[in-house]
Amino acid sequence: MQNSKSIAWTRRSLLKAASGALLLASVPQAVLAQQKERRFEPRPGDWRSLEVVTRVNLQKTGVPSTVWVPLPSVETDWQRSLSDNWSGNAKAMRVGTDANYGARYLIAEFDGSAPPILEVTSRVQTRDRATDWSTSTATHETPDDLRQWTKPTDLIPLDGIVRHTARQIVAGARSDVEKVQRIYDWIIVTTYREPKVRGCGTGDIKAMLETGNFGGKCGDINGLFVGLCRAAGVPARDAYGIRLVPSAFGYRELGGNPASLKSAQHCRAEVYLRKHGWVAMDPADVGKVMRLETGNWIKDPDHPVVAPVRKALFGGWEGNWMAYNFAHDVSLPGSKTGKLGFLMYPQAEVQGEALDPLDPDAFKYAISARNISA
Whole-angstrom distance between the N-terminal and C-terminal Cα of the chain? Predict the structure, then answer.
C-alpha cells in the first residue's frame, strides 16, 4: 500500500499559508523588505561562452588506475559544445560514448609509473530558457525519439507505487501541461531539501515513495518528478550537469563559485509537451531555495523569496549551468564496479577499487569555470 505521506500533499497545501504567515512574522522587517524585492526571470537571449576545466591528481603511484571524466554531450537550443581538450601523463586517453544515451566521457588509463595527472578543458555556450505558454512551438521529435524518455530505468521504475502515485496526482487532468503542473506542485509541497544527503542523492524514487522519506537532493527530487511524469504518460528526462557561475538574479543557492566548483553538480529536468516541445523544469531548486536561501527554512512556496523561483522553474531555467548528459544506468568501459545510476561526477578506480567521487579531498580533483569570448 502507498505510504500515507505520499498522498498528504493536499492537506499540506491548505496548511502552507498559515505556516508561511507564522514564519514571516518571525523574520525582521528589514529582511522582509529586502525579500520583497527579489526576482527571478530568466529569458532566452544571447549565448554565454564558458570554459570548464577539470583537474585530477590522484597522488597514487606504483599501481595502475583509470579515470573517467564526463564531457558535455548535449546539443540543444539552450546549449552548444564548442570543444574538448585534454592533457596529462596517462599511457592512453580516448573518448567513450554510452550506447543508449550518447553520454560522452574521457577515459584516461595510467600505468602507475608516476602520480596520475589529468586536465580536461571543455568549452560550451549556454543561455537562459523560458517557455512562451501562449504559443505553440513546432518540434521534430518522432514517437521513436520520445520512446526513450518514457521507459523505466534501474532507479526510476514506472510500475507499482510509482504508477499508483502518479495516477492519483493527475486524476482528472485534461492535458499534458495540467498533468505536469500537478506533479510539479506535488513535488514542491511533498519533498524537501535535505542537506545531510551526500552529493546529489541516489535517485532511488521507489524507496522514497515506499518509506515516505521525501528528503533528498536534486538526484532524488528531480528524479521523482521525472519518474512520476513518465508514469503519467508524459515523456521526461533528467539533465545531469554542474553550476558554473553565480545567478544573475542574486540567488546565492542557484549559482556556483567559478573558482572552485566543488560540490556544484546539479541535475535538472525536462518534459516533452505536445504544443511546446522540450520544456525546462527544476522543482528541486525550488526546494533548495526554500530550505537554504535565507537561513530560515521557508515552508511556504508562495513566500516572496520562493514564489518567483517556483514560477520561473516551471518552464525555464537560468543558463549559468552546463549539462553533461541525459544518461541513466551508465556502464563505463573497463570499470569493475558496475553501472552508475547517472554520470555527472568524475570517476576513478585504482587497481579496480573505486574512489569516492563525493569526497574530492580524498579523490583529488577540482573543477573551475570562466567566461570566455566565443
Answer: 55
**pLDDT tens digits, one per residue of 301-325:** 999 999 999 999 999 999 999 999 9
Query: Right CATH number for 4-44+127-324 from 3.10.620.30, 3.40.50.10240, 3.40.50.300, 3.30.70.3340?
Result: 3.10.620.30
Q: What is the pTM of this model?
A: 0.90
Residue for cell digits 531539501? 193
> What gap in Å lies between CA 46 and CA 16, rounded to an integer?
38
Whole-angstrom distance, CA of residue 45 vs CA of residue 78: 10
Cα 143 → chain centroid: 25
Beta-bridge partner residues of 92: 109
Beta strand pairing call for 192-193 and 215-216: parallel
CATH code of the domain occupying 48-126+328-371 = 2.60.40.2250
What length does the chain have? 374
Whether 120 and 107 have beta carbons less than 8 Å apart is answered as: no
Q: What is the DSSP string of 196-261?
A: TS-TT----HHHHHHHT--EE-HHHHHHHHHHHHHHTT--EEEEEEEE-S--TT--GGG---TT--
Q: Which of 155, 161, 290, 278 is nearest to 223 (CA)?
A: 155
Q: For residue 272, give the 3-state DSSP assignment.
A: strand
Burial of residue 338 (number of CB atoms within 10 Å: 0-12, 13-18, 19+): exposed
Q: What is the pLDDT of residue 239?
A: 98
Alpha-carbon gap, residue 166 to 313, rounded angstroms = 20
Contacts of 249 (CB under 8 A, 6+ apart): 38, 39, 40, 41, 42, 318
Torsional sign, CA 31, 35, 37, 41: positive
Low-confidence ranges of the chain (pLDDT < 50): 1-34
Q: CATH 3.10.620.30 residue ranges in the chain?
A: 4-44+127-324
Residue type, 13: S
pLDDT (tens digit, 9 = 90+) per residue, 19-64? 443 343 444 444 444 455 589 999 999 999 999 999 999 988 889 9
Distances (CA, A) of 297 to 20, 290, 292, 293, 300: 10, 6, 7, 8, 9
